[in-house]
Amino acid sequence: MPRRTFRVDEANALLPVLERALVALEAQRETVRVLQDKIQVLELLWGGRLEERSCPDHAERRAHRAGVAAAFREVRRIVDLEITRRGIRFPPGGLEHELLDFPSTWEGRRVYLCWKRGEREVTAWHEVDGGFAGRRPLTPEQRSRMGTDRAVPDQEEPDF
Q1: 112 SS3 class
Q2: Measured by CB atoms within 10 angstroms of the end CB, which terminus of the chain is less buried, N or C?
Q3: What is the pTM of this model?
């Protein structure tokens, strides 16, 4: 199955949807942080007794853990529906740093258009193995031609 490749204008057109997805992911991450903090407080207060059903806060801890699990499920759902099914990927640290990579092509090879939340449009790219540190600004030529040579054979991409 051929992989999706993006032109710069196609990537830019998706940014409003992706921005909303990242806001939703941020909200879930905050939910996890709050619930884990509450669990930690209960564990500090009760220690090993928190595992016992007779502990007054046993049920509260279970509820917090269930909330964390639900938030993680929602994160997976959002990532799947709004990001990966569109052919977009999170690079290493992408969820934490709100980075997304759009597979593209340049001069007969696969590359990534690179976008960080808060940027108004896609203005950078990097080689498949270059990562965020290898970001380069898009030139006017790249802006108009990147992703147009769609018949690039599949290349081995790093497994992150």
Answers
A1: strand
A2: N
A3: 0.84
pLDDT of residue 91: 87
For the segment 76-99, what is each residue's pLDDT rounded down to a tens digit?
999 999 999 999 998 888 888 999
**Which residues are within 8 A (CB) of 28 and not within 5 positions of it... i.e. 6 or more apart?**
71, 72, 74, 75, 78
In sequence order, the β-bridge partners of residue 105 are 110
**Which residues, 6 or more positions from 4, have their beta carbon under 8 angstroms from its beta carbon?**
86, 87, 103
Selection from 107, 117, 110 nearest residue 87 by Cα:
110
Place of tokens 């054979």: 153
**With contact defined as beta carbons under 8 Å apart, do 50 and 58 qualify?**
yes
pLDDT above 60: residue 160: no
Residue 23 is inside which H or E element, if any? helix 8-46
Under the banding of pLDDT at 50, 70 and 90, the label for residue 4 is confident
